[in-house]
């Protein structure tokens, strides 16, 4: 297997991150969501600049190419991008009593099924653990659920988010780390 390297994302990476996210949403959700749901999901998925500013968002590189991106957060926002109405909650979490958030995990379709998501997830969990968190939560998309289940997450809530029009099924998941 090709080696995956990580670096912390910077504000200069925002356009490249958006490109990876757009490709992942458009291509990797096929087979899990209808065309209308994919369009709708763009209203609640995407780039959260706060993760980049906080230094908790990472780029996965394979042979110098951006293969994926993902992060974790010590803030209360569970999911959504900068443009996602009503989802922003910048309050800092208490590692002793609240779970860290795994956020905005995307694999470029050219690198799907090569271990990028699993490696990013492990990298984020280790970073959260290093800051004293013992639990992580995330909001899983239908395309991401198989990865999260295989990594030890369990479903604690199922929702449909219809703020983009068509209802998009999501699952809130948790794992002790």
Rg over C-alpha atoms, rounded to the nearest angstrom: 15 Å
Gap between N and C termini: 26 Å
> What is the total domain count?
1
> Class, according to the CATH hierarchy?
Alpha Beta
Shape: globular
Mean pLDDT: 96
Helix content: 25-40%
What is the number of beta strands?
7
Largest sheet: 7 strands, mixed
Low-confidence stretches: none
List SSEs in N-to-C order. Answer: EHHHEEEHEHEE
Going by CATH, the homologous superfamily would be Gcn5-related N-acetyltransferase (GNAT)
- How is the CATH topology named? Aminopeptidase
* Structural class assignment: alpha+beta
Give the strand order, joined by hyphens, for the main sheet: 1-2-3-4-5-7-6
Explained architecture:
The protein has 177 residues and is of the alpha+beta class. The chain has a single domain, classed as Gcn5-related N-acetyltransferase (GNAT) (Aminopeptidase, 3-Layer(aba) Sandwich). It is built from 5 helices and 7 strands. The protein has helices spanning 14-28, 35-41, 49-54, 116-130, 145-150; strands at 4-8, 57-62, 65-73, 100-107, 135-140, 154-161, 168-176. The chain has a 7-stranded mixed β-sheet with strand order 1-2-3-4-5-7-6. Strand 4, helix 4 and strand 5 form a beta-alpha-beta unit. The mean pLDDT is 96.
């Amino acid at each position: 297997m090709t080696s995956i390297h990580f670096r912390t994302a910077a504000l200069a990476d925002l356009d490249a991150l958006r490109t990876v996210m757009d490709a992942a949403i458009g291509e990797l959700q096929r087979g899990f969501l209808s065309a209308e749901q994919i369009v709708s999901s763009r209203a609640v998925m995407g780039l959260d600049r706060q993760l980049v500013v906080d230094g908790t968002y990472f780029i996965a590189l394979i042979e110098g190419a951006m293969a994926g991106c993902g992060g974790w957060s010590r803030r209360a926002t569970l999911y959504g991008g900068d443009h996602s109405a009503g989802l922003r909650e910048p309050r800092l979490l208490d590692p002793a009593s609240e779970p860290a958030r795994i956020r905005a995990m995307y694999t470029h379709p050219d690198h799907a099924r090569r271990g990028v998501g699993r490696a990013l997830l492990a990298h984020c969990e280790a970073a959260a653990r290093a800051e004293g968190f013992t639990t992580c939560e995330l909001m899983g998309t239908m395309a991401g659920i198989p990865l999260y289940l295989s990594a030890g997450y369990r479903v604690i809530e199922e929702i449909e988010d219809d703020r983009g029009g068509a209802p998009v099924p999501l699952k809130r998941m948790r794992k002790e780390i």
